[in-house]
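INFO batch 0412 | record 1 of 1 | parsing
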Amino acid sequence: FKLNTGNHPTGTNNLALGNNAGANWTGSTTGSVAVGVHASQYNPATYNIAIGRFALRGVNGASTGTNNTAIGTNAGAAVTTATGSVLGGHNAGNAITTGVGNVILGSAAAGALVNGTNNVAIGTSVATSLSSGTNNVIVGVNAGDTTTTGSNNTILGNGAAASSATVSNEITLGNASIDALRIPGVGFYID
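INFO prediction complete | emitting tokens
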């Protein structure tokens, strides 16, 4: 099904709704959905879901990323070869070009991430400065917002920040206001 006011997309089992949605899809584009103005406009790859204005828009002549899901205005807007990522929220992962398996959920989440792999960023304005890195888990409003690079970090809690912008292999629980650690059921408590 095709309904747009730009170029009319082609391919098999695709759905495009909106001005220039899926405009550059080719005959080999299969199983993709583009809903919204310029959604998946320049990405002719297969099995992508783009819902929202400029979602998975891509770069003209350079986008081939497959199996991505982006929901929200500008979510994954710069994707070129990124594969298997889930991006949800206004401007979520909007700078991502390459990388595999990122899960980015929240408004302005991981907005500077360009080429990360297997990162999880969940929360409003989470990991806003992260530009690259692998295997990071960052959860909480404004969590990890000073982290720029690094890998294998776990940063949890509202405003939680790693010890440095480039640290790797670190676990950070909570922000500077946290003054106790408790594990119920185990009887573990640090004050």
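INFO post-check: The chain has a mean pLDDT of 93.
INFO record closed
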